Amino acid sequence: MFVFEGPETADITILFAHGAGAAMDSAAMTAASAALARTGLRIARFEFGYMAARRTSGTRKPPPRAELLMDEYRAAISGLKAGGKLVIGGKSMGGRVASMIADEERAAGRVSGLFCLGYPFHPPGRPESLRTAHLETLATPALICQGTRDIFGSREEVSAYRLSKTIDLQWFEDGDHDLKPRKAVSGFSHSDHMTSMAEVAGEWSKRLV
């Protein structure tokens, strides 16, 4: 099942997967999707099976390893049948899973780009456990929007990583993993960063058309 926002005739559709702990209709996913749709992009949210099962089981089954979700993401691409160009991605873990299949899907002509909101470069508190090996050789045009104090990868940490030149990394001042800043520190609100993130994504996506 997909949840759509934005014009059906959009040149770009973003297939947008959720993070490890919050569903596709979480506050963060809803806010990001609405902001992106306001720029004229079409957004298609979907849910991995483990998260959908939580709605009926009443239990919080932990997510599988990201590698075990790749086939589910591939199935979502096939099931969407997007018109125009397709960008895959998501929030946190959803973006990571998309990044792991992006090059093969692009080589097959099914995907034009990758969009990650709050990429989980490493688990919180474990900066030595990097999830960046495949990002060093990524061939797919990619946009990563990251808060400067994200506990999954801050600006200071990520600046030392070797990342592919196809990745456009955009930083949002004092933003956390949801791009939420401390207004008293940064002068920005969460709404400010959501609007700026969407504008950046909208401009970036034009280069894919």
What are the main properties of this structure?
single chain, 209 residues, alpha/beta, Rossmann fold, 7-stranded mixed beta sheet, 18% strand, globular
Q: How would you explain this protein's 3D organization?
A:
The protein has 209 residues and is of the alpha/beta class. The protein has a single domain, classed as Alpha/Beta hydrolase fold, catalytic domain (Rossmann fold), CATH 3.40.50. It is built from seven helices and seven strands; from the N terminus they run ββαβααβαββαβαα. A seven-stranded mixed sheet has the order 1-3-2-4-5-6-7, sandwiched between helices. Helix 1 crosses helix 7. The longest helix has 17 residues. The two termini are 26 Å apart. The relative contact order is 0.15.
Brief rundown of the structure:
With 209 residues, the chain is of the alpha/beta class. The longest helix is centred in the C-terminal third of the chain and has 17 residues, at 190-206.
CATH topology: Rossmann fold
What is the CATH superfamily?
A: Alpha/Beta hydrolase fold, catalytic domain
- Number of folding domains? 1
Give the strand tally: 7
- In oligomeric terms, what are we looking at? single chain
Can you lay out the helices and strands and say which pair or pack?
Blueprint: E1 3-5, E2 12-17, H1 27-38, E3 42-46, H2 49-57, H3 70-80, E4 85-91, H4 93-107, E5 113-117, E6 142-147, H5 155-158, E7 167-172, H6 183-186, H7 190-206
Parallel strand pairs: 2-3, 2-4, 4-5, 5-6, 6-7
Antiparallel strand pairs: 1-3
